[in-house]
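W.,

You were right to be curious about this one. When I first looked at the sequence I had no strong expectations either way, so I just let the prediction run and decided to look at it fresh. Below is the sequence, 283 residues in total, followed by the output.
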Amino acid sequence: MVVLEAYTKRGIVDVGGGMRDIFGAGILDRCIDAGIHFDYCAGVSAGGANLANFLANQKERAKRFYLDYAFRKEYMSVWNFIRIGSYVNLEYAYGTLSNSTGEDPLDFTTMQKTASEFCIVAANAQTGETKYFSMTDLSQDNYGPLKASACVPVACKPWVIDGVPYLDGGMADPIPYKKAFDAGCEHVTVVLTRPKDFYRNPEADRRSVKILRRSYPKAAELLEKRAELYNSQLDEIKALEQEGRISILAPASIEGLGTLTKDKEKLSNLYAEGYEAAQRLFG
């Protein structure tokens, strides 16, 4: 068991992973139940949304998105792709549902008052540079950085902020643990959404790289190197776990769940596994 109180500053990194990150939602809901606080929170893609709910102290809000709203055609569907050019309607998720007048508002007032630092990772589609958004880049009913970070390449059109198109942060810094250490954290909890022994196969991205290269060659370069970067970062955090500086929480199995897979039973199981994993680690 990790006693977080032993560390002056502790961080958490949620790497995202689309629908699989219901595992992270389970972890963070357990942390809410246990009153666990993190001084630095870094989220990639769906991990950013999970951490926003955590910082807003809204237990099970993320769970509703994975198990309810994601099954609506307005959220994720071929219908969306035909209508707006994106399989995932990020405006529906982070606007229509999440705004103050929405069906399930994000408690931005509570989130903004937190003492925790919030880092949201995205990739600049034009330059290939990593963009680290912070809490100051968010405002009531303006959650652009969360949309940008969760913009799955090819499945979604880039999300534009101040004229700059952004794509999924997992292309640029898939496991941003170094940002947490750079911020002064003594211990970092890393939430993975695949088993610890899973290493990415670059062949899995080949088709998307070819498509993306037509419009965003620099982003395509990032995507082409994503597997290599993720795998090297995975080795690094495993070594740091042996040193006691990092704790890794990862599912034993994802039961075949992909980034955009919708299977309520398997997703519910993964949520429960995340909750239980956090309970074992933190008590």
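Here's what jumped out at me. The mean pLDDT is 97. And, maybe more interesting for your project: Strands lie at 10-14, 40-44, 117-124, 130-134, 159-161, 164-168, 187-191, 246-249.

Coffee later to discuss?

I.
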